[in-house]
Specification:
Layout: H1 3-29, H2 34-55, H3 58-66, H4 75-81, H5 93-104, E1 112-115, E2 121-122, E3 126-133, E4 138-144, H6 148-169, H7 179-194, H8 196-209, E5 216-217, E6 230-234, E7 239-240, H9 244-247, H10 254-270, E8 273-276, E9 284-286, E10 292-294, E11 300-303, H11 305-319, H12 323-333, H13 342-353, H14 365-378, H15 388-404, H16 407-423, H17 428-438, H18 441-453, H19 455-500, H20 503-530, H21 536-539
């Protein structure tokens, strides 16, 4: 990628970001109305979308990730970017051919009878071409786009500048997205996606995982022809799950397809290990026999054993109507902010789960979704950055499932799949029974009584912690005062040294001033950090 193109790309992204920052500040200073803010965010969304499509590359993926952050970003902005698709014009064939010949160390005729020079799919990272091997087998060749490494490096440098600026100059509200963590997560995922060896390993992992599942089809891979920039796989024909006309000709009904989708993805979301993080309609197909076909394992995520345990507990708690336990699981997973009141969240969950799917017939679904986004933003909840890609996977599959089955059928389909999955988890079924018992009135009474008896002990612990914090706070405060006094003494000494022309006094005073000024700055920073642990009354 030429230097001129890099600079132009960086300039366009940075100018867009800084213009957005300036507009937001200007609206805050002028205290604009909610209606004005909505118009501004819609305008920002349109500009953002236009820039992404113009520059393509990594920026499209960033837009896709932001589009699922309805818990943080305004609805008018989300509406403008929610249907972003990772489709870009294909590269020149001569550039693709050069990459293939370099990776294979020879001409294409050595391995193939024929290669179609027109790409069948083209995304920001790679392009796919159809070919025929010497033995007559049809294959798909996924090739990394020319100059993509350079484009990604440029975009990451630009994002670093924007994040640095936002951290220092843009006041973020409490609980807002941690841009540094998101950047590191995004960088890690994109770097994995740029290495086709890792994608090959992920494909083999999923193929082994679903080896004994008749309703799932994952293409074979040709390791001898695959490199870090080229991936050769079995060619698999499939129907998009959004193609209603073609689905109507299958022997398998739409409801059955929805159930199979849930059976494929539910274990990925609830069990520790790897999950498919990019299951859009082009990567999840259905064969004429009704098999779910999974493609493109470049973007994957991982769930830790600890988080998987809490996710499972959350589902079990909701099904057994133990909302206290559900709130506890949400807290451990990091979905609830510190100021969230557990009792209030329990009541909200209870009201949400009391909602009858039949009521959807009488409602405007889009209006309901927008209202839910508003509720999410108003509540003390957030989607932890580490679950952004899991959320992307869930939201994408949810959209496909909703296109296949009616809202009334969702619970009817989902609940038996979860129960069946639960039966395969050994001791987990006893955990489900235990959660159900905890939700019963008698158990709740006993639990509340036990918690009440523990109150004195908890208060004593809290008191001790508060005393320790106050003691440490006092130490930092005293050091800060002493540093300030030494700085004043040093300044007086400097003035005295200059007045008396005494070099030793002057030099000592300069040393004391510098040393104490550094100390004052350090202890001021420590006090500022420690302040968040202090009780509100002591902050005043």
């Amino acid at each position: 990628m030429k230097t001129k193109s890099k600079l132009r790309r960086m300039f366009k992204v940075l100018s867009m970001a800084f213009l957005i920052f300036i507009q937001i500040y200007w609206y805050k200073i002028r205290k604009k109305s909610d209606e004005d803010w909505e118009k501004l965010w819609e305008k920002i969304g349109k500009r953002f979308r236009k820039t992404l499509f113009e520059l393509e590359g990594l920026l499209i993926k960033i837009g896709q990730i932001l589009s699922i952050r309805a818990d943080l970003l305004p609805n008018p902005f989300i509406q403008q970017i929610q249907d972003l698709t990772d489709q870009v014009p294909p590269s020149e064939w001569k550039d693709i051919q050069k990459i293939l010949e370099t990776e294979w160390g020879g001409s294409l005729e050595q391995h193939f009878l024929h290669i179609d020079k027109k790409a069948v799919a083209s995304a920001s990272i790679g392009e796919v071409y159809q070919a025929v091997l010497k033995d007559g087998q049809k294959v798909a060749i996924k090739v990394q786009r020319p100059d993509i490494q350079s484009i990604v490096q440029t975009d990451f440098r630009t994002l670093r500048i924007i994040i640095w600026f936002a951290d220092f100059f843009v006041p973020m509200p409490k609980g807002f997205i941690n841009f540094k963590v998101l950047f590191n997560e995004l960088k890690q995922v994109i770097e994995r996606e740029l290495d086709f060896v890792q994608e090959k390993d992920s494909l083999l992992h999923f193929k082994k995982r679903f080896n004994n599942v008749d309703t799932v089809k994952i293409p074979d891979v040709y390791p001898e022809l695959s490199t870090s920039k080229v991936l050769v796989m079995e060619w698999v024909e499939g129907i998009r799950l959004t193609d209603a006309e073609a689905l109507g000709q299958l022997d398998v009904c739409r409801k059955e397809l929805a159930q199979r989708l849930i059976e494929v993805f539910l274990p990925q979301w609830l069990e520790p290990g790897t999950f498919h993080a990019d299951p859009h309609s082009g990567n999840v197909l259905v064969s004429k026999q009704g098999e779910i076909i999974l493609l493109d394992f470049g973007m994957t995520g991982r769930i830790s054993k600890k988080d998987a345990t809490y996710f499972q507990g959350l589902i079990e708690s909701v099904l057994s109507k133990n909302y206290a336990k559900a709130v506890e699981c949400l807290t451990h997973l990091g979905f609830l902010l510190p100021e969230a009141d557990s009792r209030t969240m329990e009541r909200l969950l209870a009201e949400l789960m009391a909602f009858q799917p039949a009521q959807l017939k009488e409602m405007d679904i889009m209006a309901l979704k927008l209202e839910m986004n508003d509720i999410i933003q108003a509540l003390p909840i957030q989607v932890p950055t580490k679950f952004v890609f899991l959320g992307r996977s869930f939201v994408t599959i949810e959209g496909i499932v909703r296109s296949l089955a009616s809202d009334e059928e969702l619970l009817e389909i989902g609940k038996p799949v979860f129960i069946e999955w639960l039966k395969t988890q050994g001791n987990n079924k006893w955990s489900f029974i235990w959660h159900w018992l905890q939700s019963q009135p008698v158990f709740k009474t006993l639990h509340n009584l036990t918690e009440f008896l523990k109150v004195p002990e908890k208060l004593e612990t809290l008191k001790e912690v508060e005393q320790r914090r106050f003691f440490q706070f006092t130490i930092y405060e005293n050091y800060k005062k002493q540093s300030f006094q030494l700085t004043l003494l040093g300044l007086i000494g400097i003035a005295t040294g200059i007045y008396t022309s005494h070099s030793l006094i002057f030099q000592l005073s300069v040393g004391i001033s510098v040393f104490s000024s550094v100390g004052y700055f350090i202890f001021s920073m420590k006090l500022k950090k420690w302040m968040k642990f202090m009780h509100e009354k002591r902050r005043l």
